[in-house]
Amino acid sequence: MTYAPEQPTAVELHLFQSPYGVPLNPLTLHLEFLDGGTYYPPLPWALPGLVTSYRAPLATGTEAQQARAAPQRNALTADDRRAGRWGNAGHAPSQPALTHRDANHRDSDHLAPWDRAGVAQTDTRARWWPITEAADRANGHPWGRATESDRPDYLSDWNPKPAQADAAPSTGWFTVNLYGSPYDDSAARAALRNIDTGTSISLAGPSGPFTPAAWDAVHFRFGYQPPKRPIVPNDQTTRLTARQATRRDSWHRIPWGEGDTIWRNWNLPYPVEENDEPEPPEPAEPPEKRTVYLIMNTLEITDVDTGTPLDIQNVTISLDIDSLSWQFSGNLYGAGSLALVQPDANGMKDISVTINGHSWVFAIERYSSDERFPTKKWQIGGTSRTQYMAAPFAPTRTYTNTLATTASQAATQELDLTGFSLTWLTSGDGTLPDWPIPVGALSYRDKAPAQVVADIVKAAGGVMIPAMATDSWTIQPRYRVPPWQWASATPDAEVYIGMIRTRSAQYEPAPEFNACYVSGINQGVAVDVQRQGSGGTAPMPDIYHDLITDPQPAISRGRQELAATGNKVVETLSLIIPENGAAPGIITPGQLVKISHDDPADDYLGLTLSTRITVAAAGGAAIYQSITIERAA
After folding, report:
1. Which domain holds residue 345?
2. Helix (H, G, I), strand (E, B) or coil at 410
3. What residue spans of 432-480 are helical by DSSP H?
4. At what angle are helices 407-414 and 449-459 packed, to 10 degrees?
């Protein structure tokens, strides 16, 4: 039974409303001010000042009162649980009423529980008995006869418009308030706690005021009971935003593909652009076949900060397939030029080098002098800017991933907020796959970002090819096409035999394997990779790596290891660099190069392992690129 006081300073209780049952001891009354719903902490009020004395009436009781206490004959066995001491109980249908006459009005507050049936006794009555007594009809079930809306096949779970008889005991269903704000009852509860005035409570029954026998005969429990109201979704204020992810956010992509909205609403108010992931480069155009090539070589070197031309001769630029940056060296003339490029307190200085339309940017990290009369020159050296992400230029750290990720996400995260980026194609021919990395699989100690990325890429047999003039790398397999498929492969660059000035070759024998066992270490998978149709009869030594956590990197690593086996011929070719970007351009490591002849039967393909560009005379009179390729024997 719940009493919600309207004014906190006065509470008037009427104990004759349903449901209420007089306890066995009529002098003890227990009031519960909260039902079985949500309870809040009781208010810190002092016990109200109640009357602590009780005056028993001295008048002689009426005949009905005396009859209540008069001992009768023993009750029947069926009535033992009622512990009646004044006579046999009637048969079951007469259980709600006494055999004595009705009590007077002033005694109705203290009726014995086996007199006229009260609300507390309605639960013990069989609900399907017909109500015959007038006294029982008043305590009948309040629902009454079902209306048409109560038919069993009605679709609604509750009656939106119950009959008048059903209104009082209605279940109190509400329609959910989808757009409202969450309720906050803290202010209402605080207001009840902050009342300093005294509280007076009067207890009254149907016959008048009720005075307890002692101060602790009545128990009160006060609290705040929230009103009945519709529920409000707590997360209705959450707003989902959608935008095209930038490059630094690409590592947040979920590794298992695109998700699906839970709202089933594809009518976005703005279009979603396609992912601008770069497409694989198209095969290079074949070079012009000439008897004589006339080339006007150009060499331009300037200071990046000021744009001042620099007098640098004997320039050498080089890169091999396993390096993280291009290397530069040259002879610098003039003390003024040295002041522009020498490192200082702010770090290294950058220079721009352009050869026949192909540009590089290098950071000068060292120099040595040769001050013999009559000229002064300095030997300078530097690297491309990608070296900034390697030790000792970049800080090292120790790390273990605490969340599941993917290889491309982990690699991109290492470069997050540094200005450096990766171009990693993960689908299509000649690309390095991406794969999931579980928690704890990526763990390293005291490594710089470029070293971590190289280790991730190497797990699947890939390499990092640095850009010439930008702060980026291209991630690709070491062998984009395995040697046993070179006969039908499309080359990345083509060199006509007439462009080659000199060439040399060296035979390198090696055993040829056709199977490779690749496995993780602490966690992951183990895959036995075999060349198709070989039967795996010649296995090579096993390969282990911490990041072999999925079959995709295991297969890719096994393919790269098998491609590197067998007899090889390593050739070094010195060829021209056509101007204005004509084919073959600058051949970089990792490219599959075709050496074409006048007779197509003599053509062959090889993998570029290194590139070296030299400027042999002042002013760029003689410029050649020397490439080292690996081809099948």
Report:
1. 293-389+479-509+567-633
2. helix
3. 449-459
4. 170
Residue 215 identity (one-letter amino acid): W
Q: Residue 54: what pLDDT? A: 41
3-state helix, strand, coil in the chain (%, to 5): 20, 25, 55
CA 390 to chain centre: 30
Half-sphere exposure of 435 (CA within 13 A, CB side): 24
**140 is a domain residue:** no
Residue 253 makes CB contacts below 8 A (sequence gap 6+) with 245, 406, 409
Tell me the two tokens of residue 137: 């009809």
Residue 350 · residue 372 · CB < 8 Å: no
Q: What is the CATH number of the domain that holds 606?
A: 2.30.300.10
Q: What is the pLDDT of residues 465-503, one digit of tens each?
A: 999 999 999 999 999 999 999 988 999 999 999 999 999
In a domain, 267, yes or no: no
For 524-541, write each residue's pLDDT tens digit.
899 999 998 888 899 999
Reduced to 3 states, what is the DSSP secondary structure of residue 529?
strand
Buried b or exposed e, range 261-296, using 16+ CB within 10 angstroms: eeeeeeeeeeeeeeeeeeeeeeebeebeeeeeeeee
In a domain, 192, yes or no: no
Query: What's the full length of the chain, in residues?
Result: 633
Report yes or no on 487 lying in a domain.
yes
Residue with tokens 């026949």: 356
